[in-house]
Design a protein that fits this description.
This protein is an alpha/beta fold. About 45% of the residues lie in helices and about 20% in strands. Strands 9-8-7-6-10-11-12 form a seven-stranded mixed beta sheet. The chain has a five-stranded mixed beta sheet with strand order 1-2-4-3-5. Helix 1 runs parallel beside helix 3, helix 4 packs across helix 5 and helix 14 crosses helix 15. The longest helix is centred in the last third of the chain and has 26 residues. The structure holds glutamic acid. The site of glutamic acid has 13 residues, from strand 3 and helix 13.
């Protein structure tokens, strides 16, 4: 999706092929796992407010459901492509497997720009999406959730359309719903908090006190905002935040002496999620080029935006001080950059482990919906931290024991779990 010349699906396959080779995965299993099981491509005609009808392109792709129903978000983005959705659905399979939750991998997307659409147009788009997929999504086959530029409100419209067609209530058909409408406490902050739960555990293992570290964040959407908030609550210094500016159609990096104040910046986000530059300046922020987040002299880089951001072309700009890359986004690092990161001795907290907090909380949401009994926020977050920490420890211990890069260790665990389920079902 991010136009950098890299194809995310090829990246996902390259990562998979490399680890499949390392663990000696059977050739037939490799062939089966390196591509999605099901793909739905469709059009959604939407009546626009000006009386015209616009046709949007939609996708839902299920990579693998051997361990449970497909699971994964729906993105609304003008640069969405089938290959982006394929890659993301594959990463969801590994994410659910490494987090050890009984779900498979799926992803959806619509080529659109919700920032330029009214709420009514977005509602009609969501309802059209649900109608197009009615027979192929649901609590027992494929469960959507929010992702880039979709929210609980979008989920609720999709749910409402689905339930209207079904003539019954199926709260577990979608997650990320608003609290009080079948949503779970803690779901909004779960992905960002999960990123920091894994980072906290890594720093503990490496005997680095969080309060002695500084970090630079790319993005200030749902993931980055909550990640930065929890990181600073733990005592870390948020040295810089890079955020997309919808008005100027470019990104800017925000810095302030003494560190960014996350609450202060969150309070001056506009309706597009961009940080208001004038207000930031008046609060004493220095605003520079969007790429500068990567050049900060920090201990930790936290990319929380789109794919293909950390490439060999920009690797040389990363400070020698950086010790950890903590991938809040899906696919922010290209496979050709991994060897450079590894050789530089930078610890990689890989995306499908590090950002699994969202889907783990989605799983809790489904469990609560099925029981029709909802936990309080503290209980959700305690369970989330336990799941994230356990998943991290398994990957970290394997990486240490076998002296492998953490992304490879995470893949080794995930691929083995999925391959075992596929084999036990007798598919391959
Ligand atoms: N979109 C999120 C992700 O990429 C959450 C998926 C979910 O909750 O199903 O992990």
């Amino acid at each position: 999706m991010a136009n950098t010349g890299y194809n995310p699906f090829e990246n996902a396959q390259t990562q998979f092929d490399g680890v499949a080779e390392k663990i000696g995965l059977d050739a037939d299993m490799r062939e089966f796992l390196r591509q999605p099981m099901k793909e739905f491509h469709f059009t959604i005609p939407v009546k626009m407010d000006d009386g015209t009808t616009k046709t949007f392109k939609g996708y839902r792709i299920r990579h693998n459901d051997a361990r449970g129903p497909g699971k994964g978000g729906i993105r609304f983005h003008p640069e969405e492509t089938a290959d982006t959705v394929r890659a993301l659905s594959m990463w969801m399979t590994w994410k659910c497997a490494v987090a050890d939750i009984p779900l498979g991998g799926g992803k959806g997307g619509v080529v659109c720009d919700p920032r330029e659409m009214s709420m009514g147009e977005q509602e009609r788009l969501c309802r059209g999406y649900a109608r197009a997929l009615y027979n192929n999504i649901g609590p027992f086959c494929d469960v959507p959730a929010p992702d880039v530029m979709t929210t609980g409100q979008h989920m609720l419209w999709i749910l409402d359309e689905y339930e209207t067609l079904a003539g019954a209530r199926f709260p577990g058909m979608i997650t990320g719903k608003p609290v009080g409408m079948g949503g779970s406490m803690g779901r909004t902050e779960a992905t960002g908090y999960g990123v920091i739960y894994t980072l906290k555990e890594l720093l503990k293992c490496e005997k680095i006190p969080v309060c002695d570290t500084s970090a630079s964040f790319q993005g200030f959407g749902n993931v980055a905002e909550y990640a930065a908030r929890m990181y600073s609550q733990l005592g870390g210094k948020v040295a810089a935040i890079s955020c997309w500016n919808q008005k100027d159609k470019t990104a800017y990096t925000f810095k302030k002496s003494g560190g960014c104040d996350v609450e202060e910046l969150a309070a001056i986000k506009d309706k597009f999620g961009s940080i208001d530059t004038d207000k930031a300046r008046s609060l004493g922020y220095e605003i520079s080029d969007g790429d500068n987040w990567l050049k900060e002299d920090v201990d930790i880089l936290v990319p929380c935006a789109l794919e293909n951001q950390i490439t060999p072309a920009v690797f040389g700009k990363i400070s020698k001080k950086v010790k950890v890359i903590c991938e809040g986004a899906n696919g922010p690092t290209t496979p050709d950059c991994d060897p450079l990161i590894k050789d530089a001795g930078i610890i990689m907290l890989p995306d499908f482990l590090c950002n699994a907090g969202g889907v783990t909380c989605s799983y809790f949401e489904q469990v609560q919906c099925n029981m029709n009994y909802f936990w309080d926020r503290a209980e959700v977050l305690e369970k989330l931290e336990y799941k994230m920490t356990s998943a991290f420890r398994a990957v970290y211990d394997l990486a240490k024991a076998q002296n492998v890069y953490m992304r490879d260790a995470a893949y080794m665990i995930a691929i083995r779990r999925v391959a075992e389920a596929v084999e036990m079902r007798g598919w391959v």
